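Input structure tokens:
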């Protein structure tokens, strides 16, 4: 998922924003969905996107806080989730380096 959001320690980051890439890996039992072919028996990824989008729109200073907030929000929203791994990449971190981004990844379990 890609977002333009306003996370960062520096005041300029919170004013101008940055581009972010979010990856979410969800751990849940999908057996019922494989048999029923019904979205009600699994996690609706459109709903998951909306949960992530809402969290991304709440500015934080640290990416560590952002990944934690995303993981916690997904676990709260989806009872069938056993665990979630969240990665957030800040595409153009203000650190004076030629790089593809700065990334923080976390796994949150129940």
């Amino acid at each position: 998922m890609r977002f333009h959001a306003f996370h960062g320690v520096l005041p300029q980051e919170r004013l101008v924003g940055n581009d972010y890439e979010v990856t979410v890996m969800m751990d849940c039992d999908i057996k019922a969905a494989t048999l029923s072919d019904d979205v009600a028996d699994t996690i609706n990824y459109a709903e998951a996107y909306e949960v992530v989008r809402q969290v991304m729109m709440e500015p934080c200073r640290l990416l560590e806080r952002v990944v934690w907030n995303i993981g916690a929000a997904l676990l709260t929203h989806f009872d069938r989730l056993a665990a979630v791994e969240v990665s957030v990449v800040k595409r153009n971190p203000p650190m004076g380096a030629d790089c593809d981004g700065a990334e923080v990844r976390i796994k949150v379990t129940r």
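The mean pLDDT is 95. DSSP finds four helices and four strands in the chain.
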